[in-house]
Amino acid sequence: MTQGNPGYGPPPGQQPGGYGAPQPGGYQPSQSGGYGGPQPGGYGAPPSNPYGGGAGSQSFGVVGAAIAVVGAALVVVAFTALNWFKGNGSSKVSDIHKVLDGAPSNTVSGLANAYFSWLGWVLLALAAILAIAANASSPASGALRGVGVVVGLGAAVLTLFAIKLSSGGPDLTAYLKDGRVGFYATLAGFVLIAVGAAIGPRRV
User: Fold this and answer.
1) Residue 81: which domain range?
2) 119 vs 44, which has greater pLDDT?
3) What are phi and psi of 108, to 5 degrees?
4) Per the domain annotation, does 10 fall within a domain?
5) For residue 51, what are the CA distances in angstroms to 48, 76, 200?
6) CA 20 to 30 Å from 167, out of 25, 127, 176, 201?
7) Distance of CA 149 to CAs 51, 53, 85, 92, Å?
8) Are 29 and 35 in contact, with CB atoms under 8 Å apart?
9) Residue 168 domain-assigned?
10) How far apart are the first and last CA of the chain?
11) Segment 154-191, tens digit of pLDDT
């Protein structure tokens, strides 16, 4: 019987291949790639967004908001400083309100009476607020864009019909022919507010 490596012991010159010793050619868990270490892009690392967005994929829509502000400013000027009808006298919104308020109620259009006393201002405030909110970076901006467009264009339509001051008498076409810059500036302003709401937040 020759002398050698009896039994199941390791060959001479090699360390026992237990769990505590490195084994040539065997599995070597590394410090960086093992289950216990940090793994770039692995389960232990925060997920990266390949689209570059996430929560910051939208930012405040400066362009849309600026257009809406310009439209709102145009309506404010039309409501306070511009004439709405041809003629030698003043026909600002406040003057029209006084005339309608002093006329017999059965001769005045209900829409015109409400518009030139309070409804016009309410429509302006509502349309402007919705347009600004529609350009904010929020989950509700998509729905607010649609509502803002509807309110802005709806305000323009109400302005169009509110210029007919009497409940009878001349039709709408006659009033439109006598319309001046205040009326048309208001129409343009509400349309701009609707456009600003439609643009919405900026994509980044």
Assistant:
1) 59-203
2) 119
3) -105, 140
4) no
5) 9, 42, 20
6) 127
7) 30, 27, 28, 27
8) yes
9) yes
10) 81
11) 999 999 999 999 998 889 999 999 999 999 999 999 99
Count of structural domains within the chain:
1
The three-state (H, E, C) secondary structure of the chain, written as one string: CCCCCCCCCCCCCCCCCCCCCCCCCCCCCCCCCCCCCCCCCCCCCCCCCCCCCHHHCEECCHHHHHHHHHHHHHHHHHHHCCCCECCCCCCCHHHHHHHHHHCCHHHECHHHHHHHHHHHHHHHHHHHHHHHHHCCCCCCHHHHHHHHHHHHHHHHHHHHHHCCCECCCCCHHHHHHHECHHHHHHHHHHHHHHHHHHHCCEEC
Q: Residue 48 above 60 pLDDT?
A: no
Task: Tell me the C-alpha distance between 114 and 112, whole Å.
Answer: 5
Looking at the DSSP bridge assignments, the partners of residue 85 are 179
Report if residue 120 sits inside a domain. yes
- Give the position of tokens 């001479």: 12
Measured distance CA(174)–CA(168) in Å, rounded:
12
User: Token digits for 151?
Assistant: 């309110």
- Is it the case that residue 197 has pLDDT exceeding 90? yes
